[in-house]
Amino acid sequence: MVSFTFDDVPMSAATVGAPMLEEYNGRGTFYVAGALTDQRDQHWAGISADEIVGLHRRGHEVACHTFSHSRAIDLDWRKMSEEIEKNRRYFLTLDPLIKLENFAYPHGQGSLPRKRQLSKSFRSSRGILPEVNSGTVDLHYLRAFPLIEREIDRDGVDRAFNEALTKNGWLIFYSHDVETTPSDYGCSPSLLRHALKVAARRDIPIVSVAEALRRAGA
Q1: Do residues 10 and 44 touch, judged by C-beta distance below 8 A?
Q2: Plot region of 53 (φ>0 → left; ψ -120 to 50 → alpha; else → beta)
Q3: What is the pLDDT of residues 12-53, one digit of tens each?
């Protein structure tokens, strides 16, 4: 299996990335920090509330990235609980059917205490260590490869798929924006399409994190 995930989430991930996944009968996971919606920063315009609802209704997964995008290593138990609850309440106001099942560590940084805490609220937590998830998998520090223009090229994408096939594993990619000229944290549509074509050519299902966990019986 392969999962394409988008952190933060820039508007282009929803308006460009998601439709591309749908072309290949795939669905993605979008780790949203509620406080970043409808906001613009130096990198991109953030996803809108309407786009979040649209993603959910088209079968994509809306997942948790803390509310304020604070790093887990900077939060104690109480503050992390508050962040999770704020995000849950925010999404309930958008659509009561949005259920936050999975989490991604902002900036990829976690800690053992927060990992234990998150395991009580979510089915999984994703990091950014570039490995295929196979064999005994740590569900609360899922491995993921960057689908980020400055960190991986087409050959690197191919090698990641080769590793997934060799290990009979679950490949996860993470990115942010999907732009012709992406930020330092995003990918171009051409790189995303290359990865989608590889998955299709090798008959690898393109599924959300939630669906991958269901298929794995986790």
Answers
A1: yes
A2: alpha
A3: 999 999 999 999 999 999 999 999 998 888 889 999 999 999
Number of domains in the chain: 1
Distance between CA atoms of 195 and 157, rounded to whole angstroms? 6
Distance from C-alpha of 183 to C-alpha of 161, rounded to nearest angstrom: 24
Which ranges of the chain does DSSP label H, i.e. alpha helix? 11-12, 18-23, 49-57, 77-94, 112-118, 154-167, 189-201, 209-216
114: domain range?
2-216
Neighbours of 218 (CB within 10 A): 11
**Token couple for 138:** 């740590």
What does the buried/exposed string (b/e) look like for 160-192 if buried means 16 or more CB atoms within 10 Å of the residue's CB?
bbebbeeeebbbbbbbbbbbeebbebbbbeebb
Residue 121 maps to which CATH number?
3.20.20.370
Q: How far is CA 25 from CA 20, 69, 164, in A?
A: 9, 30, 20
The token pair that represents 199 in the structure block: 């998955």
d(CA 152, CA 175): 11
